[in-house]
Amino acid sequence: xxxxxxxxxxxxxxxxxxxxxxxxxxxxxxxxxxxxxxxxxxxxxxxxxxxxxxxxxxxxxxxxxxxxxxxxxxxxxxxxxxxxxxxxxxxxxxxxxxxxxxxxxxxxxxxxxxxxxxxxxxxxxxxxxxxxxxxxxxxxxxxxxxxxxxxxxxxxxxxxxxxxxxxxxxxxxxxxxxxxxxxxxxxxxxxxxxxxxxxxxxxxxxxxxxxxxxxxxxxxxxxxxxxxxxxxxxxxxxxxxxxxxxxxxxxxxxxxxxxxxxxxxxxxxxxxxxxxxxxxxxxxxxxxxxxxxxxxxxxxxxxxxxxxxxxxxxxxxxxxxxxxxxxxxxxxxxxxxxxxxxxxxxxxxxxxxxxxxxxxxxxxxxxxxxxxxxxxxxxxxxxxxxxxxxxxxxxxxxxxxxxxxxxxxxxxxxxxxxxxxxxxxxxxxxxxxxxxxxxxxxxxxxxxxxxxxxxxxxxxxxxxxxxxxxxxxxxxxx
Length: 478
What we know:
Layout: H1 3-18, H2 38-49, H3 57-89, E1 92-93, E2 96-97, H4 101-108, H5 112-152, H6 164-177, H7 187-213, H8 233-250, H9 257-261, H10 270-300, H11 318-354, H12 359-362, E3 365-369, E4 373-377, H13 379-398, H14 402-430, H15 437-469
Antiparallel strand pairs: 1-2, 3-4
Helix pairs in contact: 2-7, 2-10, 3-8, 3-10, 3-14, 4-5, 5-6, 5-11, 5-13, 5-14, 6-13, 7-10, 7-11, 8-14, 8-15, 14-15
């Protein structure tokens, strides 16, 4: 199909959409009226994108070097932005809304692909919430260790602290926040989390610039870590693969893109606002990623820590390190909810449809909360969400491997959710002829991203295997 036809198709969606006249309190489909805007949508995206992945970018650039590192980072940025615009156009089919990623796939592709999408999306959401539990606890531990190092010296061996109590604290906070009914009520939490992400990224960049300006002598190169000097040839390959996975994870927000789009007002058309929000969100985060990755590599060289704020490349000023790690923890508290809410909603919808007569599942009880107002509480939601938070916390305690875990999550989610499904939906929606030039280009992009995700997954699995061999559950300390 010609480019003109594709544009006309998208425009027809907008025209059909604009003929609806929602009332003051409900949308065109009878659901509660949405209030999301470009600002809240961008905040959700920044909260989802600038996550714990930013902390490992200096390490990732160190593995790949000055040439491949920034190039891979920019490539993932461009691909993510492009495919997110394709997915945004799939939100409505024949004028009707698709409320979840699975609904979009069901409307445009159908069949087995719907189940594969659900497996990839919700499996990734579980993995991300586990990863955020690990990262938040590491940041909380870093605050305590920073103060200990400040008092007793940087080499003091007594500054060894278990991360498990902090995982429990993080889980307890999530148990409370998980009772927020749905994604639409999260806008304030996302804005707070987005501000926190800018704060700790800026602190990290500032400290890195100060370290470079202070004349730190570090080794950097066009190809990154040196074989023979830093690591063996095989380790170089594995580390490079893991670095690609870490960068892929740093852009993993397509998992919740449709759910974010479903919070936007019906006017102007959601796909137009979502494309602008994606441009704002991805461009902003790419700028921060380039700064954190490249300036962090310049500051630490080939010895860049896996987490450049909690790996103690910096010790002083200790209060600023503390502030940065507090911001990380607050951000991840909000980010956890951004990724968990679609999973919560999916399970609750499934259960209510399967057991519509079960009062435990379907009944909500009104409770008056001082200074807040009336709040509807569901005992099923309370039990199920609390159990989920506890399970993810326990898994995080068993496998607290930051970099390898991020790399595996990035590899597992980037190809199916960020590349494959958006492209397949676009091909189906725009009716692109098979074997046409555009079709071939899209398929080449799909297969190239598949190979990249595959090598990243292999590298991360190898790293996890090495860590598991030497790991004793519930005994590891930072």
